[in-house]
Write a structure and sequence with these properties.
By secondary structure, the chain is mostly helical. The protein has 11 helices and 2 strands; from the N terminus they run H-H-H-H-H-H-H-H-H-H-E-E-H. A hairpin with a 2-residue loop joins strand 1 (234-235) and strand 2 (238-239).
């Protein structure tokens, strides 16, 4: 795990760039590190204890990055003639799945074990949004990990409708929580009072984009696109309406018979 520095600004910058890196990996499907850091998972499997929402997020950010690395590693193993690489990828997948389960158990324990956060903190819109976002990203990381060994096989996502439905439902809850909490200053621009605005942090756009691309249920895919187009603005390198157009075009191409694609 990354060692914290004595300068909180340095730590904040490292975390901010780390989350931008997570966004880039999902958008461009690339990573500079092809092999997961399995030693980190071994530590998580032994005994993971979370003491704050911030720590929970740090741990989950690391696991999300590992899920992308596993995905890339499995893709390389699948195209290799070395069968042992596939077995290594399978072993890595199992360890990462255990680490994700360990995180979820630790998170639930932290949420239910005294001393808990103050009631005021628990009920603040920001805290509620943060808590739901963590679980949404955990769901996405679990899907990425579970499907990593099936590169190019989109039918594998047929088995994850419940997980995608959870992402959609939680995203709608987050929007409902967020909108009433946004200042209704008449001097503000309309898009600043009705949507998620710019942030370098992770928000709804990456998970909704992933759902729109990978979910096999037509209605849920369109729900994700609709939320991207109407409920989000800019998060780091992501801009909601533009991402919605990309996802909508992918859906159109996938649902149009190949023989008809040249005619549209």
């Amino acid at each position: 795990m990354r060692q914290l520095s004595n300068d909180p600004v340095d730590d904040w910058l490292v975390e901010a760039f780390g989350r931008l890196d997570i966004q880039a990996k999902l958008l461009f499907k690339s990573t500079t590190d092809n092999q997961p850091h399995t030693n980190n998972w071994a530590d998580n499997e032994k005994s993971l204890t979370l003491k704050s929402l911030h720590e929970a997020r740090q741990q989950l950010d690391s696991l999300i990055s590992e899920s992308y690395r596993l995905q890339r590693w499995a893709r390389n193993a699948d195209s290799s003639a070395n069968v042992s690489l596939l077995f290594q990828a399978l072993s890595a997948q199992q360890r990462l799945q255990r680490a994700l389960t360990s995180w979820l158990q630790a998170y639930r324990t932290w949420r239910t074990t005294p001393p808990r956060p103050s009631l005021q903190s628990l009920h603040s819109p920001q805290e509620q949004v943060a808590q739901r976002l963590l679980l949404v990203y955990h769901t996405m990381a679990s899907i990425i990990t579970a499907t990593a060994l099936y590169p190019g096989d989109e039918t594998v996502f047929d088995h994850y409708d419940l997980q995608f439905a959870s992402i959609i439902a939680s995203s709608k809850e987050i929007v409902q929580i967020y909108n009433p909490a946004t200042p209704r200053d008449p001097r503000s621009h309309a898009h600043c009072t009705q949507h998620f605005t710019f942030t370098s942090d992770l928000g709804l756009i990456p998970v909704l984009y992933y759902t729109a691309l990978k979910c096999r249920d037509p209605q849920m895919r369109r729900d994700a696109v609709s939320m991207l187009a109407t409920k989000t603005r800019q998060e780091g390198i992501w801009e909601g309406p533009i991402v919605a157009l990309i996802a909508a075009e992918v859906i159109r191409l996938e649902e149009t018979p190949y023989s008809e694609q040249g005619e549209t």
